[in-house]
Structures are given as structure tokens and as C-alpha cells.
Amino acid sequence: KLDRQTAWKAVESRLKKERYEHTERVVKTAIELAERNDADVYRAEFASILHDYAKYRDREEMRRWILKDHRLPKDLLDYHHELWHGPVGALLVERELGVNDAAILSAVSCHTTGKKNMSMLDKIVFLADYIEPGRKFPGVEDVRKAAESDLNEACLMASRNTIRFLMSKNQAVYPDTFHAYNDLLTKH
Ligand code: DGI
Ligand code: FE
Ligand code: FE
Ligand code: FE
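That is the input. Now the predicted structure with fe (iii) ion docked in place:
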């Protein structure tokens, strides 16, 4: 089983300093969210440590993994490469670090876009990545406030902000980003 120190070392060797420090803040935020929502604190910690594991992988290597592994949706290749590090990261922490916990792999995989029917752990990592104290997005303070009392509401606000932001920049929106938004609306 992957221990804490090995996980941190693996991430440290793969990430730039600023991204490593972002990860430290995501972990702290995710643990707080897990404690407040009676979620699995251990899984929240490990999924957050690993969430950006593939952030700096070579784009062509990520493309090859997406083509090669039947579990990864091929339509990722039609969208911005920034979206690839979650799904490819889940694959690589499984292959390279031996992580085989499906709940942790899911949270790593969907941390950028969200998806339909997110688990509590998926929501915690998605949200912690969005609201960690280093983030400066417009509207993030409102999402932080919502996260203190309502995980679904806060995830809905985060996904709405992201969709608005992407549309204001004339950027494509990955279907899972819409699926997360639509699904969270019904849980409102
Ligand atoms: O890896 P991080 O920087 O910590 O954060 P992240 O994995 O949430 O990535 C954030 C970026 O991904 C941000 O610039 C918004 C972008 N993003 C999220 N959903 C979509 C998206 N970009 C596109 N093109 N389409 C999406 O659906
Ligand atoms: Fe990320
Ligand atoms: Fe991140
Ligand atoms: Fe509400």
C-alpha cells in the first residue's frame, strides 16, 4: 500500500515547486472538507496528493496513453490538452505507484471537469482544487463560503463559473463539464 511519504516524494519529483505548493494547499483543504462532511479523510488526502501527478507529462506521451488505454475516452483528444492530466494521471498513478483504489482513481480522473454522479470524494477533490487558498478566480470567495455548508451547492457554483469563464473566452467546454453542472442542478 502506498504510504504518505512515498506519495509525496513521487509527486515532488514530477511537479514544479509552485504546483507542489498548490498540491499542499489542496490536500489541506480536502482534509478539512472531508472532516466537515463525514467523508473518508484518508482517501481525500491521497486523492489530493496525487490529483496533479500528470500535470507536466509530455503532451505526446499523454496522447499515446489516451489512444492506448481503452478506459480513457478518445474524445479527450478533440479538446484542450489541459484536460488530459486528470484521466491520464489516474492511469499513471495506478501503473507507476500501484494505486488500485477505484474511488481515489475516479477523483484524480475527474478533478478538472467533474462528471455526472460524482461521489462525495470526487466532489471534495474537485472543490478543494478550485477553492484552495492560493486561487484567485473571480467568484471564488462565494464558492469558499458555500463550501462551508453545502458541497453540492459549492460544486455547482464552481462548475457554473468554469463554464462561464470558458464561454467568455470562446473556448470549447468538455461534455463532462456540462454533465457535472446539469447533474448538480438537480441536487440543488
Ligand atoms: O491542474 P490545476 O491547474 O490545478 O486545475 P484544473 O485541473 O482544474 O485545470 C484548470 C483548467 O482547466 C482551467 O484553466 C479551466 C480548464 N478547464 C476546466 N474545464 C474545462 C477546461 N478547459 C476546457 N477547454 N474545457 C473544459 O471543459
Ligand atoms: Fe489539475
Ligand atoms: Fe490542481
Ligand atoms: Fe441553493
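Residues 4-137 form a domain with the Hypothetical protein af1432 fold (CATH 1.10.3210.10).
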